[in-house]
Amino acid sequence: MSTNFIQRGGLWVVGQSVLLFAVVIFGMVFHGDGKNLLVMAGGVVFFVIALGCGLAGKIALGRNLTPFPKPSTHTQLVQGGIYGLIRHPLYTAVFCASAGWALVWQSWPALLATLALALFFDAKARREELWLRQQFPEYASYGRRVRRF
Known about the structure:
mainly alpha
């Protein structure tokens, strides 16, 4: 791995990918019987929320979109669109999609992996926000106005 990959927070991306892979595999391998339609419908609701947060986050970020948590030197701080409501809509989208996946498959192991992913995203967001405060002095006031997730 290159030092630039690590410096930009690439290990966070690897960790996130491993947990997301676990959610997907656990859902397919350790699934329920599919009889609880209410739980499956809840999963679909989570998927719809994920789609909305993900699309709105991608649109708001535009060219600033990157898999890395550490902002590049040419990145601009985005505070509009969905970022006026939540600071990490893309993490929220991935979490909601994971929860939806676990519920649709009715998989307790996938739901536990989703919980681990939520804890991971909280830690990743905290680290990312340290970098953002270093690069953007106005991030501190933004963080006080807008909820993390």
